[in-house]
């Protein structure tokens, strides 16, 4: 079987084979194939060297298959029918003769002798086509590049200044045709009390590309788990363990705060499974009012004894005799 790129004069040309396509290919696939092969076999700068004959054959195949009438004749009657002309209800269809100048086809296709290789990818973007028909140009903006910014609870409590290194592509020449990798350092100020999920946007700082507008770099804040506290908006939540004796008779809870203080919280109420102790003003700073703070909310895990002697059970039974107790609702 003959290769489409090395046919002897009497061997018929397989235009689909030249463009490396199947017979059911679409018009867009034909355009993409020509773009790729024309750039590969371009007499000047092509990566496959000097292949003028191949370049010419690629141009001829594209001219035939991109024209609905020529393609239809070729599909039915082959290359011979195409080049000798065919009768039709409206008269004789003249023979097809390639003009012999592949650069003419190349320039008509690209509109330039130095096209961007991915130009035709835009034809698949319906929103972009709509913008083009409305005269808005071919450049579209890349989608946001989102990066999770993990913050320690102490950084949210005190505020911080974060410096993050990011690699991106930037233009390497004044004509904006080549790119190189460059490191960019982003400086981000973390305000005290910054909300979880806050988006910090650096407009158009993404990869530079000749055919698109750079994406926005978007840092989205997220809380790193803390060994003691859990965040709930401006409040801090924590859980501490107490014995059954402490739950019934009272205790003092010792807490080391984020700002290196020690709180001693007296618990005088009965600690039930649903009991919560709220310590006002010991949570996180309010972002827009840093002099004010949320609350510290303490939950309790009651530890029950594994064994209780009979005499102790009798004491507990006597102490908890319902006829001698006043039952009150839970309170803080």
UniProtKB/TrEMBL annotation:
One Pfam family hit: DnaJ_C
Keywords: Chaperone
Keyword check for Manganese: no
Record-annotated J domain positions: 14-78
UniProt GO BP: protein folding
SMART domains on file: DnaJ
Keyword Chaperone belongs to the record: yes
UniProt xrefs under Gene3D superfamilies: DnaJ domain, Urease metallochaperone UreE, N-terminal domain
InterPro entries reported for this sequence: DnaJ_C, DnaJ_domain, DnaJ_domain_CS, DnaJ_subfamily_B, HSP40/DnaJ_pept-bd, J_dom_sf
Record GO cellular component, one term: cytosol
GO molecular function, one term: unfolded protein binding
Lineage top rank: taxon: Eukaryota
Official protein name in the record: DnaJ homolog subfamily B member 13-like
Organism for this UniProt entry: Fopius arisanus
Taxonomy of the source species: Eukaryota, Metazoa, Ecdysozoa, Arthropoda, Hexapoda
